[in-house]
Amino acid sequence: MDLFHDSPLFTGVRQMLGAFAKQSIRPIAMKHDRDEAMPWDLMKSAMAFGMTQTSVLDGRKKLTGVEEDPDPKKPKSQARLAVAASEELAWGCAGISLALGGSGLACSPVHAMGTDDQKQEFRKLLSGVDDKGHVKVAAMALSEPGTGSDISGLKTTAVADGDHWVIRGSKQWITNGQSASVFVVWAQTEPSAGRAGVRGFIVARGTPGLVPGKKETKLGIRASETAQVHFEDVRVHKDMMLGVGRSGGLADTKKMLDSTRPVVGSQSVGIARAAFEFLLDRVKSTSLHGTPMASHQHIMFELADMQMEITAARMLAHRAAWMADHHLENVMEASMAKAHGARTAQYVTTRAMVLLGEEALEPGHPVEKWYRDAKIYDIFEGTGQIQRRIIAKQLTGHNPT
Ligand SMILES: Cc1cc2nc3c(=O)[nH]c(=O)nc-3n(C[C@H](O)[C@H](O)[C@H](O)COP(=O)(O)OP(=O)(O)OC[C@H]3O[C@@H](n4cnc5c(N)ncnc54)[C@H](O)[C@@H]3O)c2cc1C
Q1: Choice from 379, 387, 391, 393 to test ligand 1 binding pocket (greatest atom count within 8 A of CB)
Q2: Is 27 helix (H, G, I), strand (E, B) or coil?
Q3: Going from the N-terminus, what domains does the chain have, and what CATH number goes with each?
Q4: Is 381 a catalytic site residue?
């Protein structure tokens, strides 16, 4: 089904990225998963499609050639485009899609809270290639050892010193953490202010005291790099603090998640669709105990259930993105899209493994990879439990204890 049948813009982006995923991502997906290596060459060639590391800041023009209407009150299309693009790219490989778009995590707060000068500086730090000849990438460093879901407990501090802030602390599970040329790091500037005291800072690689740490070995999305980052009395000029003059502090990062969660939900849909299509092809072409697989009712019912869940997950993601594009509050819808997408990816990949039998247990089998990739979607960008807390609070006004 084509949800975008009435929009040539969305259909075009979906078709273009679907073809890119099929021709350029799928053929290298297994290798990058096995080697746990970022797809640096592909990241360079993807720039020709407008997939720059600053595309969140640049808006839709680079991807579609069409400018967004500058009137802030008019509906936008960026959230829906991002959702449509994410499903296609994650269908190709979720880890590679995160490598292609991981800098967007750091671009989002700069886009939402940065001044024009900060945006310009951030773009400058991300332009060109790094000393290894790789496309430059950015990282958003919020999570810490012991502080993932409950970000109000951040231990990293920023202490004012003349025209500078001095940042001290360690971050964990940071996408692009080892290779990033620029970081957006979150630190507590005023412990007595709680969440409102938490601020983001733009920090360039090479700043003394910024030490990228150990790269993690992961179950899934292995083409996307995840690492620790240490800040050992890193001096950052006060002009590089985001959100000056805004009271929101950490609350501003929560708003940001309302536009990124539908995208993450849509990536889960891409993984689920990949496994579903593999299974469907097999069911149509193979026999079980001497009769066509497609004649076994238990298998056909499983396919029907999978199709229902995938379509529902896709629609939730598009609904949440449509609301973001129309400037409507979408806290609950964004969480539903994220949580339902994650559940669907795990459900479909698990059932596909069961129905395919022992072949899918072989390391290097595509369904085995998608099964591993799906798990992370229940953890990052807010775990499944955290999404349910948000939904329940929207329903009742109460935080579940
Ligand atoms: C591959 C990967 C990439 C990542 N990339 C980034 C990144 O780029 N930048 C970044 O800052 N972070 C990143 N993270 C970190 C990620 O956001 C955290 O792992 C996530 O927020 C969960 O935090 P935690 O792992 O500390 O788990 P915890 O918060 O310790 O949670 C452990 C368990 O307790 C549950 N739980 C916690 N609090 C509650 C509650 N109040 N009610 C009910 N249940 C609760 C959780 O749902 C979970 O089941 C990444 C993580 C991974 C795995």
Answers
A1: 379
A2: helix
A3: 8-103 (1.10.540.10), 116-240 (2.40.110.10), 250-396 (1.20.140.10)
A4: yes
